[in-house]
Specification:
homodimer; alpha/beta; Rossmann fold; six-stranded mixed β-sheet; DNA-binding; HTH lacI-type domain-containing protein (chains A, B); DNA-binding (chains A, B); Peripla_BP_I (chains A, B)
Chain lengths: ~325, ~325
DNA sequence: AAATGCAAGTAAAGCGGTTTACATAGCGAT
DNA sequence: ATCGCTATGTAAACCGCTTTACTTGCATTT
């Protein structure tokens, strides 16, 4: 591969001149420019990014850490960040932590080593302080979708409270009054917010929130499945379930089907996220849509603001929207 | 951040000694080792990867180009490659091309710039020769899942012919004789292979392959939808459809549902891939499973072989398996 | 006592760029 | 004839690490 020196030699100028010309730090007469351009073309020169990065200390790259890239919600989010980054000439290094704390820490350390300019972090499990400490050390961080307490960086979240409120209200309006909730770990910010939205809707309708029908563990299909199995065994059982992620809802759906029951015939179900497959499952899932493309775009914008030391809001809330499909039916009349 | 020089100074030795010690290229007495270790710990030293890579010309990183990371099939494949790469201490840079030729080329060029050691390439569209030329120039490439003609690199594919044969036979055994096929672009290797498997099954059963029921365009949900809509309008229409990817099958499913018909009641459907959501759609999809984890692992192994100039098979075929779920029913008796 | 060999390092160049500070030529003004 | 200015560059250090070739001191052999 040709180097800057080769180009300089070929063009009969100094490497300095070529470098400065390529970075627009010098005005050269047309003749010289032409010679350099010709040399570059002839040698098929491409700057060595490694060398450039080492020299400037800037990488024009960011890192994106996601719990699980195979989860379509995160995959779409990653794609959205990447699309925006590309428009700005930034590379994105995606790392997927498999939801394990150790791998999150790994990813953060590796990031320090790879010398990226910044980091967009998504997590889906509560932090015991480790993550916060690492993130403070890392600098140039933006949190997306989920909070990590005690770290002063820009955050991009959706209106979790509003989302759960809309979902619960939808169920209530259709006559449901025994509503269960399945969600992630109690310590997680989004879990608490969504729970708050649920409770607000129930309170406003003067419906009781039954503690034993609030099932919190993690945002996984497996837990959605287990939780729903448990709920179906109760008597009386809830007439509707609010699952606080589509993954949970899909697991729940499987449990219902296995029990020989149907959604929404026997039990109504609302999800949260509107991941790409929500409309394809059986039945198409009524769910709360998060604006994935906007989230990715805005998270990247916020990171750019941090990098350029431009002022930017510390917290951005993106609106959600209830998407009504086929997984909710009106409650059956009580046989009093 | 502390540098190697800082460590050397702190430990009272030369940078050379530290470098060689860290890379196991020198035997030092315990006392010296201890001093260096102490200095590293004290300064919280981490080697600058950029500098290391520039210096050695090795990056311990590979690039993975995928058509679309938001497609769960590719996302899982990417995760599998990443898992294996991590075991070997390699970083993986994922780029997602959105199925556009221009972006594939971009990705390959960027790769040259990023100086990765190697590349695992997945594509899902036919090549006009551009890609082949670039890949030849790139070196250290492995093709995964799909072929690019005329480039002599190791390939990892599944038994496409066998897969389609199994799927078609399954339909035939259940009495179907009017079977349509929906697949990707005719020029694509996997499309031709799967078509061959289909035709072989039909021939063996002495069933006619009707040319107007071979619908080839691209591996997208949209095309699956359009193709199925068209098929449903025909009279008589096929009693079963073999969709050569789950994405196609899912689009087809949507068309059936919109037409007020059901799978498998009115028409049977088999997919191909067994992506994670295949069992979650309505009805759970009967499909041909590709061994995603193995594909990722073996592709990485092949790339390592190329990098280490170890001999490795030019072509590896991984077995597929028919997963019977609920999207196929026995053919109804003909009302002669 | 000189030669030999080994252990324990080190000096300096190089990877491919960037950047700071300086150089030279040509030209108009005085 | 000289001064100073602008246009057009250049030399050399540096980013942080690796690596080749060399040095130094000491114990052992002859």
């Amino acid at each position: 591969m040709a180097t800057l020196n080769d180009v300089a030699e070929e063009a009969g100028v100094s490497p300095t001149a070529v470098s400065r010309y390529l970075n627009n730090r010098i005005e050269l007469p047309q003749a010289t420019r032409d010679r350099i351009d010709a040399a570059i073309a002839k040698l098929d020169y491409r700057p060595n990014l490694l060398a450039k990065r080492l020299s400037t200390g800037k990488t024009e790259a960011i890192s994106l850490v996601t719990p699980e890239i195979a989860n379509p919600f995160f995959a779409e989010l990653a794609a959205a960040v990447e699309a925006e980054a590309e428009r700005h000439g930034y590379a994105v290094y995606i790392s997927s932590t498999g939801g394990s704390r150790a791998k999150e820490i790994d990813a953060l350390n590796r990031l320090r080593d790879q010398h990226v300019d910044g980091l967009i972090m998504m997590t889906n499990q509560p932090d015991d302080g480790t993550l916060a400490r690492l993130l403070k050390g890392a600098g140039n961080v933006v949190l997306l979708d989920e909070d990590v307490p005690d770290v002063a960086v820009p955050r991009v979240f959706v209106e979790n409270v509003e989302g759960a409120y809309l979902a619960a209200n939808h169920l209530i309006e259709l006559g449901h009054d025994d509503i269960a909730l399945i969600s992630g770990p109690a310590e997680l910010f989004s879990v608490r917010e969504r729970l708050a939205g649920f409770e607000r809707a129930m309170d406003e309708a003067r419906l009781p929130v039954r503690a034993h029908w609030i099932l919190l563990k993690d945002y996984s299909r497996q837990f959605g499945y287990e939780a729903m199995r448990w709920l179906l065994k109760q008597s009386p059982r809830p007439t509707a379930v609010l699952a606080c992620s589509d993954y949970l809802a899909i697991g729940a759906l499987k449990a219902v089907r296995e029990a020989g029951l149907t959604v929404p015939g026997d039990i109504s179900l609302v999800g949260f996220d509107d991941m790409p497959f929500a409309e394809l499952v059986d039945p198409p899932l009524t769910t709360v849509r998060q604006p994935i493309a906007d989230m990715g775009r805005i998270a990247f914008e916020r990171l750019m603001a941090v990098l350029n030391k431009t002022p930017a809001p510390a917290l951005t809330r993106l609106p959600v929207e209830l998407v009504v499909r086929k997984s909710v039916a009106p409650a059956k009349r009580k046989t009093n």
